[in-house]
Amino acid sequence: MLKKKASFMVLSIFIVMSLWLVGCNSNNENSENKEPGNEPRNELVYATAKDINDMNPHLYAGSMPAQGMVFESLVENTADGIKPLLAESWDISEDGKTYTFRLRKNVTFHDGEPFNAEAVKMNIDAILSNASKHAWIKLTTKLAETKVIDEYTVELVLSENYYPALLELSMTRPFIFLSPKDFINGQTKDGVNGYHGTGPYKLADHKTDQYATFVANESYWNGAPHLKKITAKVLPAGETTFLALQKGEVDFVFTDDRGADSIDVEAMNLLVDSGDFRIVRSEPMNTKMIVANSGRTNSPAADAAVRKAIWHSIDRETISDAIFNGTEAPADKLFSSNVNYANVDLPQRKHDVEQANQLLEDAGWIGHDIREKDGQKLIMGLYYDVNSSSQKAQAEMIQSSAKKIGIQLDLLGEESTSIANRRSTGEYDLLFNQTWGLAYDPQSTIASFTSEASYYHTTSGIPEAEELYKKIEEVMGSTDEETRKSLYKDILTIVHDEAVFIPLTTGSVTVLAPKDLEGIAFKQTQFELPFDRMHFE
After folding, report:
1. Which residues contact 494 (CB under 8 A, 6 or more apart)?
2. Is 310 strand, coil or helix?
3. pLDDT of the residue at 330
4. Per-residue b/e over 349-363, b at no fewer than 16 CB within 10 Å?
5. What percentage of residues in the chain have a pLDDT greater than 70?
6. Does 276 share its domain with 293?
7. Residue 75 burial by CB count (10 A; 0-12/13-18/19+): exposed, middle or buried?
8. Is 500 within the bounds of a domain?
9. Are residues 377 and 306 in the same domain?
């Protein structure tokens, strides 16, 4: 710990000196970025630790903030509930099985193709033709047919009532719309010809692992955005991004959809102290957690006592204070109480090394340096996102805590796409992850408990797995509010008792922006930012 503090002091001194040396230069460059005539700037450059990747909206490799600029859905999830987006209005049949959407007229894709009922059907049919890829989103298993009623009316027919249908239609992906001209042989599952959506920005240029440029859609149905050009610049997290912000090469950073933090909280605060930047934070959006593989029978992670011992060993208060400067609060359960249906009374597992040791002893794990049971050493791998400095710091802290109770954690940094693949194949003991987030939860995270693409391996090894899956199926089709509350309580109690999701902190979206950038807001998701609402004073 002393070594870590010393290293941080050296970094802090370096940062302060850098601020002093180039602060004036930063101010000059920011001034030079303004257009002639003292007009407000209309371009924004943001730093990202990762490339935007394949922007195909019906797959999952692409950057969600970038996709959110280019593509749109039928409806939008807001703080005030589901609101119209590409659909002006809709009706739901009495049995909850038929949704009739009336579409906006005079909306075009970026390539000039009309947005209409045929385009909606073509997109939804393409998504459903690749249903196994989207198994985590249960609406794909409930959609029986998409009907074109007329040019601007489309009907979605479900096999059974599914209460989160509108919520899932509002997600950043996959139910968003791509120009029919971008399809390959009527499909999108094997690639697309382009990335033409209906959104406020068009993808203009992309150089892999360097930058992506988006330009304003001047024909946008909701009015052309103020910022005329947005560049996503790929930079290594940490010092490189910090210096780019200082020099005015980058304006803006935020915590992205794959958990990568371009600079840490201390560096952000130092930039704010320079007078050129400010920090804007959203309300709590999600829960950061360690996911344990209960279905991996040859792993100690399959033992509930081991999972509970790790839970007790983690000092969340120190993680919150030392790593996040208190900007993320300690979490004691999978969902915070502000999430719908999640205000459930569950027993707390506090930081308690003695209790952790006792759990392991009672379960037959003996020894001191590294415990053993039936000839198996208590050694597990913990995967973290190699691009996230906060995950790495947490992993090191958790590793140190686990060592005190006789557990060896081997820390393994990988790209987030690789970790997501491990989560779907079950090739892991423990890995960092987070809930889907506010407005998506609890239904989206809980639905993914049954999906092999998400958390099936996490939940499949617990004794109550079949009961859990049955209750999940029931709650998604429930029509009675009290029944729904009761089912969610049972589901949350099962996974809490089994400790397969070990909570760490509740997270928010953190934005570091120039002081003169106005209109910074957040959507009901940690995966997008409404860039079209932003403008410079």
Report:
1. 462, 464, 467, 468, 471
2. helix
3. 96
4. bebeeebbbebbeeb
5. 92
6. no
7. buried
8. yes
9. yes
How is residue 21 written in tokens?
Answer: 């040396």
Mean pLDDT for the chain overall: 90
- For residue 180, is the peptide bond before it cis, meaning its omega torsion is within 30 degrees of 0? no
Please give the C-alpha separations between residue 215 and each of 158, 229, 470, in angstroms, as whole numbers. 38, 5, 47
186: alpha, beta or left, given left = phi > 0 and alpha = psi -120 to 50? left
For residues 434 and 471, state if they share a domain.
Answer: yes
User: Last residue of some domain: 154, 182, 210?
Assistant: 182
Q: In whole angstroms, how far apart are CA 87 and each of 60, 75, 107?
A: 24, 6, 11
Give the pTM.
Answer: 0.74
Whether residues 333 and 457 share a domain: the answer is yes
* Nearest residue to 517 (alpha-carbon basis) of 279, 265, 235, 200: 279
Residue range of the domain that includes 291? 286-507
* Contact partners, residue 385, CB within 8 Å, separation at least 6: 258, 259, 260, 391, 413, 414, 415, 416, 419, 432
Assess whether pLDDT exceeds 60 at residue 223.
yes
pLDDT mean over 62-77? 95
Tokens 């000039």, residue?
112
Rounded to whole angstroms, the Cα distance separating 396 from 415 reads 17
pLDDT by residue (tens digit) across 263-300?
Answer: 877 888 899 999 999 999 888 788 999 999 999 999 99
Q: At 386, which CATH number?
A: 3.10.105.10
> Which residue type is seen at 57?
P
Q: 180-204: per-residue pLDDT in tens?
A: 999 999 999 999 999 999 999 999 9
Which DSSP category does 252 fall into? B
* Residue 17 pLDDT > 70: no
pLDDT band at 499 (very low <50, low <70, confident <90, very high): very high
| Tokens representing residue 23 in the block | 């602060």
CA distance 341 to 348: 18
